[in-house]
Every structure is written in structure tokens, then in C-alpha cells.
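Case study.
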Amino acid sequence: MRVLFRRTLPLACALLAAAVPAAAVHAQDIVLGASVQLTGPDANTGRYYKDAYQLAIDKINASGGVKFGGASHKLVLKLYDNQSDINLSVRQYTQLVTQDKVNLLLGPFASAFVIADSAIAEKYKVPMVQGGGASDQIYARKFKYIFGTLPAASNYYGSTIELLKQVQPKPQTVALLHADDAFDMSVAKGTRDLLQKAGLKLVMDERYHINSTDFSSLLSQVKSANPDVVLVAGLETDILNFVRQSKSLNVSPKMYSMTVGVPSADFRKALGKDSEYAFGMTAWLPSAENKDKWFGDGEQFAQAWKTKFGYDPDYHAGSGVADVEALTLAMEAAGSAEPQKVRDALAKVKFDSEYGMVAFHENGQIFDIPQIVIQIQNDKVVPIFSGKGLLAKPVYPVPAWNAR
Amino acid sequence: MKLAYWIGIPAALAVMAGVPWYGSPVLVQFGINALLIAVLAQGWNIIGGFAGYASFGNSVFYGLGSYGVGIAMVQWNLSFGTGMVLGVALAVAFAVLIGLPVLRLRGHYFAIATLALTQVMAAIVSNIDLAGQNVGLVLPPMNDDTMFYELSLGLVVLATLTVFWLTRSRFGFGLIAIRENEVGAGVMGVNTTLYKVSAFALSGIFSALAGGIHAYWITFLDPNSAFDIGVNVKMIIMTVFGGAGTVLGPVVGALVLSAVSELLSSEVTSVASLFFGFVIVAAVVFMPHGMAQILRDWRKAGWRCFVDNIKAYRL
Amino acid sequence: MDLFAQILVNGVLLGGLYAIMALGLALVWGVLNIVNLAHGAFIMLGAYLSWSLYTFLGIDPFVGLPITAVVMFALGYALQRGLLNLLVRAPMFNTLLITFGLEVVLTYLAQMVFSADFRAINPSYAGASVALGPITIPVARLAAFGAALVLTVGLWLFLLHTRLGRAIRATAQNLVAARLYGVEPMRLYAVTFGLGMALAGMAGTLYGTVSQINPYIGSALTAKSFAIAIIGGLDNPLGVIVGGVLLGVIESLTTLYIGPTFADVASFGILVLVLIIRPGGLIGRTRTA
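After joint prediction, the assembly is written out as follows.
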């Protein structure tokens, strides 16, 4: 009896829906599903994605929603908290697809999660656009239903190394410290190649366990090896510890650059004056040059974000919003919300957004967005180098800790 | 009473076996998860409930089973079955080699030692290239939830039958004797070392099998999730909740607590863990001997059995 | 050679921090036989407390140590009287589970109140260092080491020479006999637990000045504290200094000579070895477990 009911109900609904004229107010809502880290150790960054998805959806709905088939469809977000547990996020994505019957998927934060969750998207053939993972492993399985808006991990240090070729006195030696998670291992692998091509000597190359709290031994080794430049690829929490402890051990290379952490306001808040002169990178800056169909441009987007949420957005935010926009434009191009058609449209999509230009390679990864090298100067994030030319003068060499 | 068991259990099994056909995919997913935990709980029951050695190291077996399948399938392109065999072999080897020295410890020292072992294994595996270091392994996708479900159910049945056999065999009596009075058991002729290590290995085999199935099902594996202490604590809580040393207790405990946890995770998401923590605290205070004991005592004392439980243990 | 000496110094100083983290755990375990899996969460709470005092009231963390201690003491006392007393005569195993549940609850409460943003206690001297020849000594760590010595020796003297301390030890050795002598165990247990939590809270303050704080640091700190407490031995509070310094030095040397990712292998490996060979710890009496 139950089975009969379950099978006939959708049919009845479909008949009913078809009977209603297409221009009616009740055009079908499009549900976007996601499982994001709202609690647990990754929650600090996970919340950027929840806020990004919600803001984008609200903004798109405010200007009429997704338009295809002669009707305007409202976007709805169905979000679960995966408590920073990969296994739970996999089950939640399965639930989103099979029980909640969402139309399309948005991704979680962190490469490890994306690797696991993309298998669900592929299994059920529902496209997922994610802005949280950059590791090469995500795209190595040649899945067709995963798309990502974060640039390739292996090229994260590309712009920084270009910058190194331009500063004086020219640096010769580099130390590379990286965490052992998927993303940072990808970064390290790519960075080694880049360093070799640039003719810089790698005097120290150490892998440390993520969530390490004590860097004193590594830092002492760095001090002893005395490199010109120190590159650190790790989590925000590691990086915070690294900077504090390098001050307390008076480790002062001419430049130290981190893959994450530096662009965010938390970094400057937690470190206070010690955040000064740190180099970092971001794939995104709130620039008025990035024109956006719904937000106007990058600057206005950042304003809208700050007004609504009370904190500054960073590239996680920008990338999350771009994911929603990509899905919306793909639906409009395909003229439907049907997963297969949207997937094919996503493969061909190309548009400008507050995040920059969005278009995907065949493997689903976004066309490379070069990282912009930034430096904290006077408690502000200053864009220094965008891969093409100097945007501002970097403070190099960075003054030693005991000389500040 | 006996009749109820003879009819009830096969009926329940038939109902559970049929879930992939009449249940929703989410129910099947939940089922796989709950059944795997039930296997773990039952496995722990052997070493913890029967032999009285509170092991925090079953996570190691779980992880070894997962990595056995992971390495076999990803690095050496072998079949799932071969991977499971490899995982079990690793688990048994570990149980014997490490179990021998560690099982000489008693009480909380044993617990701490096994807890430390879990950390050591996680740290060691995150340095092994073959295991994918800390990045982990990504297994080939397998879209057959029905197979995983039935496999897990079969494993639960096997584990429960094993525990049932324990209640009737010399080996099982020996374990209970060790739990109640190890020195006395030794004096009475029980080869305590052999029995303890065998129990540890047996417990490990089930944990490894569960780990192997889980790895293939989730298609992703890393040291953090494979050797997660939380898994061990969960299996202990579920066994204790259901009734350690009983035959059906761990299975019932696992299914009930999994359902509670899943319900919380999907309805009240952000406070799910918080509630679960409260549940653990309440369970330990009010029903330290598990549901099985409550069910028994209820008939005699009603609500008072909770109060009695507290009175028995407080200062 | 210079590098080796620096690493050694790093290890010893780290050991001081470790020692103070483990002190509260060792006290509660050795005396009350409570294996507190929530110990790390209490360290985390102490850290947040100090951070709040520093951020909202401008109280320097070291100056605020007594405040943190008192608040955490009260919390520990209440927790023991209200909850853990219910399990005093239960198998030790039950306290393991209940403290695990407590850890989950405390972590999530912290997340709800403080959010997952990471914090740091950053007084102006937090990054200062002193140079001793070629060796650089971070001031904050030196202070933590000093605090560890003071607190450990203080606790040892307290247990040995004060009435309350002797009462605590008596109760640990023989509850019935102690009661016969007029010791009131419920209050005593609560005081001991409170003391343990106060020590954990102070450890949190010191931890917060050298590392970042977030709600999830608890479990890793608990694991570390366990290792130190056992390696040092639970009979004598001075054992944590031995355990802490040994672990700190071994981890630092392992990082230098083998690799940073092997530090955990070394520390927990040693824990297992100590448990197997000498469960009483390095300076405890060799008692079979």
C-alpha cells in the first residue's frame, strides 16, 4: 500500500503541475543542497560557505530568480551541518539527493571532504559545484559531475615565485614547510617544480602533521638553515602558531609567505601587530574590476557581505557565491534544472562575476586564476603582485622581529 | 520466553534483510552504518564484555581492516575479498604481536595502553607511502548499497552467533572466569594468556571486517578517520548501553543509539553532538549496566531501578 | 652543535608546558582514581577564560592566573559534587565514559559561546625572547616552565606537609580508614577535583600565550597529558616534570633527526613501552597495574 502510494504520488503531482498554466506564480522552486562544516574544527572556515550560498541565493531571488522555460524559479538552500566529519557529510549528500530530492549540489569546504563527497555526485549523476577544495586529487578520478572554482593547488605559489624574481636583493634560498593533508601536499608538489624552474635553491623541505601546535623545532631548523624566503603551506591554525612562535624564537627570514590565513581579518585580530609584513595570497580581492550580474561588482559584493554578516569576506566567500552563480547561469543556458542538462551547460559556461572569470576545464577545474600576492602593511591587506605587474611596493626584506 | 526468541529473531532478521527493497536509499545508508557499528559493538563485547578487558584499541583493528582493503584495491589492484582477507590478517597479526605484551596490563592501564596504540598506529600510517600518508586513499566507486547492506547484516549475524557460542562454550566460560577473577581462573587451569589473546584476535577480526566494508562503502580512507578513537568510544557506549556480556545487548544498543544520533543529526544538526554527549552522561549515570539490566529490573522496581543504580555507585 | 643545543632547550621548555598540562590530570587520577577524558577540555576552558579576561577586561594572563584558578576550582568542585560523585564506587570504566561525554558537551558549549574562530592571548611580551649565546629562549615558555616548577613542587609540598594534603592522600590510600579518622570524603573528593581543574585552567592560560585557542584543542591535549602523566608516574606529582621534559625533548629531537610527522609516533610509542615495562611510571613505585 505504501509502495503504491509512493509511486503514484509523484505522478499525481506531475499531472497536477502540468495542469497549471506555465505563467502561474507557483513555478517550481529549485533546491540547492549542501553539507558544510558548521561545527567541528573546520567550522571557522565552513561558515563562509553557508553565508556565501545564502547571500547569493537571496540576491538572485531578489532580482527574479532563475529564469528559464518562460518562468522565474526561486532558489532554495537546503543545508546540513556535517560537524567536520567526512563520513557524515557523505551520508548527508546521499540524503540530499535521494531523500530531499534537491535539484543540484553545492560543495563542502576542504579538499578531503570534496574528494569523498564528489563520489556521491558522480554516483547519482547530480552536478556539484564546489569552491572549497583545490587538491589535484579531486580531479584525478576524471569525474564528470564535479566542478570547482578554486584554482589548482599546485600553482598557488606561482605568483609569489614570480615576485621573487623581481625583488632586490634577489633571494637565492627557500625553505618549504607544508602540512600533510591533501591540499597542502598538492601545493608542495607543485611548488617544488616551480622553485626548480625559477632557479631557487630549496634548502629545507619539511612535511609536518596538520594541527601541530609546536613549531619550535622546525623553526630552530629554519633559523639554522638561514633561508632567504620561507614558504608555509598549512591550515590557518598552524599558520597562526607558526608566526607567533617564529617571533618568540626570533626567526627572521627576509620574507615569509603563507598559503592561507593572511587575507582574513581573524589573522590580524589574533596576531595584532605581529601580523605586520606577513606575505600571503588570495585568488580574490573585492575589486571593482570584477563585474557581476547580480552584485554589480566585487567591491559592492564585499559591501553587501559586510553589511549583512558583519565581517569581511575573503576568497572562500567569493568562490562560494561564484558556485551559485555558475549553477544559475548553467540552468538558464540549458533552459532546465535537469541534472544532465545542467551538467553539460556547466561544462560550457563562461561568465564574469565578483570572483573573476568563471569557466571550467574538461576535468571540472576552473581556468586558472593566478593568486594575488598580498602583504599586511599597517594592519591592512595590500595587494602587491598579480602575476602581471607590481601593484604596490612590497616591504622586502622584512624587518627582523627584534628590530620592530 | 524461548519461543519468543525462536520466532522473533528470525522474523526481525527477515524484516531487516528486506530493507533494501522496501526502504528508502537513506534508510539503507543509515542501516549500513548502524549495522557496521553493531558489528563493532559485538566484537568489542568479546574482549570487553566477556573477558573484561576494556579495549580502546579496537579502532586499530578497524583501521587495519580499512587499510587492508584500501591498499589491496588501490595500490595492488586486487579484489575486495582479497582486501578483506589482508585486513583480517593484519588485525590478527597485530592482536597476537602487540596483544601479548599489552594484555598483561589490567584495568585502566590496559585501556590507556590501547588508546595510546591507536594514536601510534595513526601516526605511523600517516607516514607510510603505500597507505597514501596523511592524504589517504581514494577507492574505486561501488554503487551497490544493497550488497553492502546485506554484507553488513550477515556480519552482524555472524558476530552475534559467535557471541552466542561464547555463552555456551568452554572458551566463553574461560573468558568470563578471567573477567570475574583472573588469578583464580589461572589457578583453576585456564590458560589466561591464550584465552585473552584469542579473544583479542577474535574481537579484532570482526572490527577489521567492519572497517573493510566501511572503507569500500565510503570510498575514502585517511588515518584520521580510520583510527578514530570516537569509533571505539561509540562501540563501547553502545555495548554498555545495550548490556555488556549479553548476546543481543550490543546489537540493540547499537541500533537504538545510532537511530537517536541520526535523528539528532538530521533534525537538530547544530546541537546534535551536544545532545549525544548528554545522552552518554545520562546513560552512564542512570543505566551503567545497560538496557538489558533496566528491562530486567523494571519489572521488579519500576522507576526506582534508576535511583537504585545511582545509589549503588555513588559515594 | 648550536642547532642541537637549541633543540634541546626547546624540548626542555616544551616539557615545562607539558608538565603543567598533565599535573591536574595526574592529581585527579592518582588520588581519586578518576581517569578524566575531559581534562583537555578544561585546559581549553581555562584558556578561553584567560582570553576573555584579557580581551574584555584587559587583565594580563599571568596576573589573572589566580582568578582563572579560582573559577576553575569552583567549576571542578561543583562538577565533582554534582556529577562525578555519583560514580565514585562504579568501575573506573564508567568514569571514562562519562568524562568522554563531558568532553563532547564542553567542546560544543565552547563552540556555541566562543565560535570556532581561533583566538590567541597576545600580551606585548608574548613573543619576546632572551638570547643566551647562540640559544634563543622564548620568554613566555620560560615563564611557563617556571610556573610548572612552582606549581608542581608546591603541590608536592601541599600533599606532603599540610593537613588537607595528608587527608587527601589518606583517602586515596584507604577510604574506610580515612573515614574512621574523621575525614569527610565527599567534600575532600570535590576539593581534590577542584584542585585538579584549577591546575588545568592555569595550564590553559599558559598554553594560550604560546599557541592559538579554539574549541577543539581539547582531545589532543588530553592525549598528551595522559602520556606525560603515565610516563612520569602517578604516585608523585614531581613525576610530571620528568615525564613532561622527557617527552618534550624526545619529540623535539625526533623532529630534528627523523621528521616532524614522527613526533606522535615517538611520544605514544614511549607511552606504550612504559606501560608494558614499568606501568608505575618512571619515578613511581613499580606497581603492577
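Observations recorded in class. The domain at 155-282+371-403 of chain A is CATH 3.40.50.2300 (Rossmann fold). Chain A touches chain B through 30 residues (CB under 8 Å). We will return to this complex in the next lecture.
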